[in-house]
Design goal:
Layout (H helix, E strand, L loop, with lengths): L5 H21 L2 H18 L3 H12 L3 H25 L14 H13 L2 H10 L1 E7 L8 H17 L6 H19 L11 H35 L10 E5 L13 H29 L7 H6 L6 H24 L15 H17 L3 H4 L2 H12 L5 E7 H14 L10 H13 L13 H14 L6 E7 L4 H13 L7 E6 L2 H15 L2 H7 L2 E7 L1 H7 L1 H21 L3 E7 L11 H6 L9 E7 H8 L2 H20 L7 H22 L5 H8 L2 H4 L22 H10 L10 H10 L3 H10 L1 H16 L2 H11 L5 H22 L9 H30 L5 H18 L4
Parallel strand pairs: 1-2, 1-8, 2-3, 3-4, 4-5, 5-6, 6-7, 7-8
Length: about 900
């Protein structure tokens, strides 16, 4: 039998061996032998060898202070290298059909153009696709940027080594490069010394575009155009941009006091600076390439019959781009430079129009082959990235806007907005929105918090429309939450409409979302403002933390259905913005399946989705991976639009309602009503210690003095993934499935799993989480860290986990979890012998640091490394 994963295992083995040689050189043979001994004991322990487990624990607990850091570092880096090998395997020449799936767009076009759907409909859908991927600064990317760059270089070397034409000398050179890179990785500190600033996060987002997406976008569109042309004999438009990119990095101020109007302005300038710099590189290359003389009348007239008309235009653009970079450099250095807008790239048309003139001239002169090279790539980059690179969203909590207006009404002697009921608030806001006089006095000295809200609105108001994305209101629940932002933007002098987007996050907010939007759509002034379009954001993270994944998923589905219905009735084009995280507990999972499992009619060619943390790197970190991800998104949105999933049957809805009701009761009975739950959580996981890890710029809690409800969704999930119980991603769901089965609903559940994409995706995600959960490891954490009188909670939780696994296996009629996804199972099994020792060591170090008043620097660093290593092994953190 052919081993489908031989190539993967070979690369894992090669990288692991080089890492071992590096450790041996840096430390000594005996230390490497101890690492290998612990790894083998972990493997035997996995197979049920209790003696091996005890021996491994003895070795781990006997590590002295000087050995802790290199030990944690060794296992941490092996897991990172395993991730690299796996990531490379999906784009390798040697990948198997289970991993390297055929191009999703090619498959989809084949299905759609095979007679199912009219060709014109397919082309019209493709030309109007509006997929907006929003890069967020959620602090789950645990790897430092400097290491990420080295990991990418490792993949470059692995790619080079696949060339069968290499000479022995060339192979030696690439192996030498691998050894150098892994030595660099080993000698680099994995843990940041300081927490990144919002600007650092924004620069990290820009580096992903520069290193990967800048090349991937035109590559993807070239492949897409080729497939469409082969099937329809039609070329895609020059400026087609089915996928665009936005960002929250430097704009998301919800609960992050470090994101200020000054920071947002700097990030906007940096975004534009990076775009100008990358376009300058393209123009310099084009100056070399477009040396031809033949031109159409328009270009000849524009260049006064130059003998090098293309180069003349490009040299002018080159000068303008250099001047743009100089202008932005001065701004970033704190100056306010005077500049003539005609001398720099001020508007997108300043760059696009001259290039379109060159493109048209080349085509008119019979040089389409040349036009469709780098010049077309550049035009398509402009269509995707504009001159601002990323459209920046702003996000702020609804309460902050209400506080600003309340402070203003009190100052003006108009009463206290904070104490008015909803109808009074709406009447006031609509009256002021229609008023021609300013509301905010010029000499008003607001409090610092309110002043920051006003400054942000003024900043948004003076930006070009293409620089900004949406203004997202978190914890929105009432029409006044939206109208308040519109009033503040009006008072700031905003000259163009801004997409103001309510974010419905909690279970109650999701359930009331359609009532809120219906009330807004019934306001004549608001209907006029929208001009027939509306964006609504659906929160996955906080709704799951509030109600558990099963109830949250059904609330999200139901809210979307109702929003689609009321928008259709109001003749408004709705765009749904999905605030998904990387993990199952935050609405994560495979993007293709997730999009296809949305309610019919909810996609309709338009979608916004957040991409966060380490998932940005896993999906878009390499050009080939990015092309695959862009193809998957395009394919999924087209399929959801043209071949929507079926409407759920009434009996499916009733069953899902019961499942949601049962699951939320089971979830909240533990998380909210069990008096000792918070104490157990804080003791059994490294939740407190996570606050010391300099992951992102945002504080872990919305309120310092709050409990679970104030904890952000990311550290809530991160903490439970560290002790391997994975609780937020399954609690309540398995219990509800068991109750349904006991009621006699098993045949109905199986029908739903086979015929309803929404339910099938939910069960598939549960399977993946259950496969990653390790009850024995979580029990070890409990034994090491939790007071005896709280152990009964751990027993209950592990029983619930077992109940859920049994319920899912009974439903799917499979012998083991993930039986139908062997690649995912192989991925989990490959890592376990390396994650397990880190988990055991982490529990030991947590116990040690909690016992001692002052831990040594080595113990603290080793603990941070175990957290980073487990996160790398689990492949997602929050």
């Amino acid at each position: 039998m052919v081993d489908m994963y031989a190539s993967l295992r070979s690369n894992v083995g090669t990288l692991g061996q080089i890492l071992g040689d590096t450790i041996r050189t840096d430390l000594d043979e005996s230390f490497l032998e101890k690492i290998e001994q612990i790894r083998h004991l972990a493997k035997s322990s996995r197979q049920g060898d209790d003696a091996a487990r005890e021996e491994m624990l003895t070795l781990l607990s006997s590590l002295n202070d000087d050995e802790l850091v290199p030990f944690a570092k060794a296992f941490n880096q092996f897991l990172n290298l395993a991730n690299i090998a796996e990531q490379f395997h999906t784009i390798s020449r040697n990948c198997d059909e289970l991993v390297c799936v055929p191009d999703p767009v090619e498959q989809l076009l084949g299905r759609m153009l095979g007679g199912k759907i009219d060709q014109e409909k397919v082309l019209a859908c493709l030309k109007t696709l509006d997929i907006d991927l929003v890069l967020t600064a959620h602090p789950t990317e645990i790897s430092r940027r400097t290491l990420i760059q080295k990991y990418s270089a490792v993949i470059d070397s692995l790619t080079a080594l696949e060339n069968t034409q290499l000479t022995e000398q060339e192979k030696k050179q690439h192996h030498l490069r691998l050894r150098q890179l892994i030595a660099q990785i080993w000698h680099t500190n994995e843990i940041r010394n300081e927490r990144p600033t919002p600007v650092d996060e924004a620069r990290w987002g820009l580096s992903t575009i520069e290193a990967s997406l800048w090349q991937a976008v035109p590559d993807f569109l070239r492949q897409l155009n080729q497939q469409v042309e082969e099937r329809t004999n039609t070329q895609l438009p020059i400026d087609i941009a089915p996928v665009r990119f936005s960002s929250w990095m430097g704009g998301d101020r919800d609960g992050n006091p470090f994101v200020t109007s000054v920071v947002t302005q700097e990030v906007l300038d940096r975004n534009r600076h990076t775009a100008a710099r990358l376009y300058l590189k393209d123009v310099v290359l084009l100056v070399n390439e477009l040396s031809m003389e033949g031109a159409n009348d328009e270009l000849l007239a524009y260049t006064n019959n130059s003998c090098e008309p293309y180069r003349d235009v490009l040299r002018d653009l080159r000068q303008k781009l250099r001047a743009t970079i100089d202008y932005l450099n001065a701004k970033l250095e704190g100056h306010q430079p005077d500049v003539n807008p005609k001398d720099i790239i001020w508007h997108e048309s300043d760059l696009k129009d001259p290039l379109m003139m060159l493109y048209k001239s080349l085509c008119d002169q019979g040089m389409s082959l040349i036009a469709n090279g780098l010049l077309l790539d550049m035009l398509r980059r402009i269509a995707c990235f504009g001159i601002h690179m990323l459209r920046l969203d702003v996000r702020q909590d609804a309460e902050r806007h209400a506080d600003a207006i309340a402070e203003l009404t009190r100052y003006l002697g108009m009463g206290d907005y904070a104490h008015w009921d909803e109808s009074e608030k709406q009447s006031f806001l609509l009256r002021e929105l229609s008023s021609k006089r300013p509301l905010i006095p010029a000499n008003w000295q607001a409090s610092a918090e309110v002043e920051e809200v006003i400054k942000t609105c003024r900043l948004v108001a003076k930006q070009p429309a293409r620089a900004m994305g949406s203004y997202v209101i978190s914890m929105a629940s009432k029409p006044s939450d939206v109208l308040a932002v519109l009033l503040l933007l009006k008072e700031a002098g905003c000259p163009h409409p801004i997409r103001v987007v309510p974010l419905f996050e909690t279970l109650d907010d999701l359930n009331n979302a359609s009532d809120c939007m219906s009330a807004l759509f019934n306001i004549d002034w608001y209907r006029g403002y929208t001009k027939g379009t509306q964006e609504v954001m659906i929160g996955y993270s906080d709704s799951a933390k509030d109600a558990g994944v099963m109830a949250a998923a059904w609330a999200q589905y139901s809210a979307q259905e109702k929003l689609v219905a009321i928008s259709k009735e109001a003749n408004i084009n709705l765009t749904l913005f999905h605030g998904r995280g990387g993990t199952i507990g935050r609405g994560g999972g495979p993007a293709h399946e997730a999009i296809l499992s949305q309610p019919p009619g909810s996609v309709d060619g338009r979608i916004r989705v957040t991409e966060q943390g380490e998932m940005i790197r896993f999906k878009f970190g390499l050009p080939k991976l990015a092309v695959q991800s862009l193809a998957l998104y395009t394919s999924a949105v087209m399929e959801a639009t043209l071949l929507p999933p079926p409407e759920p049957k009434p009996e499916w809805r009733e069953c899902m309602e019961r499942l949601a009701d049962d699951s939320v009761l089971a979830y909240r009975a533990m998380v909210r009503e069990e008096p000792d739950f918070v104490s157990y959580f804080r003791a059994a996981t490294p939740e407190v210690e996570l606050g010391k890890l300099p992951l992102g710029s945002r504080p872990a809690k919305r309120r310092v003095d709050g409990g679970i409800e104030s904890l952000r969704a990311i550290p809530w999930i991160f903490a439970w993934s560290q002790n391997r119980l994975m609780l937020p991603a399954w609690l309540g769901a398995g219990e509800a499935l068991k109750m349904a089965t006991d009621r006699g609903d098993l045949p109905l559940l199986q029908e739903m799993e086979k015929q309803w994409p929404f339910f099938k995706t939910r069960i598939s995600m549960l399977e993946m989480v259950y496969a990653k959960a390790e009850p024995n490891l979580s029990k070890f954490y409990e034994t090491s860290l939790v007071k005896q009188e709280l152990h009964h909670l751990g027993v209950q939780l592990r029983e619930r986990l077992a109940t859920g696994i049994e319920a899912v296996l009974e439903l799917t009629q499979a012998e083991s979890l993930m039986a139908h996804t062997p690649w995912n199972r192989e991925s989990v099994e490959l890592r376990n012998p390396y994650i397990d020792p880190l988990n055991f060591l982490q529990a030991e170090l947590l116990a040690r640091t909690r016992r001692e008043e002052q831990s040594s620097q080595n113990v603290e660093l080793a603990l941070m490394l175990t957290i980073a290593g487990v996160a790398a092994g689990m492949r997602n953190t929050g």
